[in-house]
Amino acid sequence: MSKVRVLVGTRKGAFVLASDGKRERWDISGPHFAGWEMYHLKGSPADPNRIYASQTSGWFGQTMQRSNDGGKTWEPVGNKFVYDGVPGTHQWYDGTAHPWEFKRVWHLEPSLTDPDTVYAGVEDAALFRSTDGGQNWQELSGLRGHGSGPHWQPGAGGMCLHTILLDPSDAQRMFIAISAAGAFRTDDAGKTWKPINRGLRSQQIPDPDAEVGHCVHRIAMHRSRPNVLFMQKHWDVMRTDNAGESWQEVSGNLPTDFGFVIDVHAHEPETIYVVPIKSDSEHFPLEGKLRVYRSRTGGNEWEALTKGLPQSDCYVNVLRDAMAIDSLDKCGVYFGTTGGQVYASADAGDSWAPIVRDLPAVLSVEVQTLP
Amino acid sequence: MIRVVLPAHLRTLARVEGEVTLEVEGQVTQRSVLDALEARYPMLRGTLRDHVTLQRRPFVRFFACEEDLSHESPDAPLPDAVATGAEPFLVVGAVAGGSV
């Protein structure tokens, strides 16, 4: 029988939640790396026992961990992230030029085919790659060297590269997103990049239609249709059907189109999920009701999923890397909150139950579907 | 023999318990002690000082003999009591550091 393993990064450690295919009873291990901020953990699609983890600390900076046994044991690997060449400057919050400074790894994206190859999205925004299992990291500096780099500026959470999507049909193509620069695509394995933000409108920047400067919160893809992307922007839920050449808003009847997470059903490429958050200054669910919204039409028409979720006095947030979907049938949907709950649905969102309720604030949730 | 006391998180990272003891060639300075520490425990590289500039991380402090040596030159000799092993070299996470 298939199993699932949920990898949870929190403000104070990592947790591994495991269950069989029924997803009713859970074994919980952790905290791993107790006391450290665990921004993200992700397993290799090519070898599910290979897991990479980003471990950070306000005192001691960035360290990296790797497991070869599905998260039972870990070993530190390389943590040297050095920008390629002269780092240059980007815009600071006050509009002045500010030198690029490495702060932390927000997101790890293992290769679809090689367990030793993994990408890291970092703050200040840049993309790094390791081809030796995380021991050594090299910047793919064509991204930061894009001519718009000096105009990028941090969002409230920092100038982070938080989304990395690998095209399963084209090894040369990947998509990334940066807060607050926008989305970018490479068609030559990271050598050169182009901004793909046409159609985004952001009232928070001087030119709402600018080529860069948009605060993209998350992008999601279904592996069967890599040219179709769904985006949760600062405000607005968007989609593209041409690999980012143009975007259309699909917020439709959402009660608020601010939010952080977005993800796609495992078997229905037009079924997508978001968690609407009240506003950019009120990072909690509207009316104190924690609701996942599902669209079965690729956007515009949304239904609230509430069964098993708190429908009063709930004021948590769901951060951008804190939703994941397994590939069982029916697919499981998981998300974690800043209140320390990890909720799971074993029926594609129709009903929910907490796996755990009292973890530290959840930064990231990933799930592995195992044989 | 130089005695080094690491904060709990770094003891866990380096998989050591209690004090670390090091042999340091030549003059005993912050730099020579940290070089020896990182050579023995490579996973500590980047956690105390920057990989490239070797500057102390902002929220890491170095104490010894009830003195804060954090702002001393990394090439200044450490107190004799540290050099002889009578007193440990303390690596401390600053009170102001950490996260919520």
Task: Write a brief caption for the model.
The complex is a heterodimer of chains A (371) and B (100). Chain A is mainly β.
Description:
- The complex is a heterodimer of chains A (371) and B (100).
- Chain A is an all-beta fold.
- Chain A has one domain (3-370): YVTN repeat-like/Quinoprotein amine dehydrogenase (Methylamine Dehydrogenase, Chain H).
- Helices cover 0% and strands 41% of the residues of chain A.
- Chain A contains no helices and 30 strands.
- Chain A has strands at residues 3-10, 13-20, 27-32, 37-43, 51-57, 61-67, 75-77, 89-91, 97-99, 104-110, 118-123, 126-130, 138-139, 160-166, 174-179, 182-186, 194-195, 216-221, 229-233, 237-240, 248-249, 258-264, 272-277, 292-295, 303-305, 323-325, 333-336, 342-345, 353-356, 362-370.
- In chain A, a hairpin with a 7-residue loop joins strand 16 (182-186) and strand 17 (194-195).
- Chain A is globular.
- The termini of chain A are close together.
- The relative contact order of chain A is 0.13.
- Chain B is an alpha+beta fold and 100 residues long.
- Chain B has one domain (2-93): Beta-grasp domain (Ubiquitin-like (UB roll)).
- Chain B is built from three helices and five strands; from the N terminus they run E-H-E-H-E-E-H-E.
- Chain B has a five-stranded mixed β-sheet with strand order 2-1-5-3-4, with helices on one face.
- In chain B, strand 3 (60-64) and strand 4 (67-68) form a beta hairpin.
- The longest helix of chain B is centred in the middle third of the chain and has 11 residues, at 30-40.
- The N and C termini of chain B lie far apart (38 Å).
- The A-B interface holds A 11, 33, 35-37, 57-63, 76, 79-80, 82 and B 7-10, 12-13, 43, 45-48, 51-52, 57, 59-60, 93-94, 97-100.
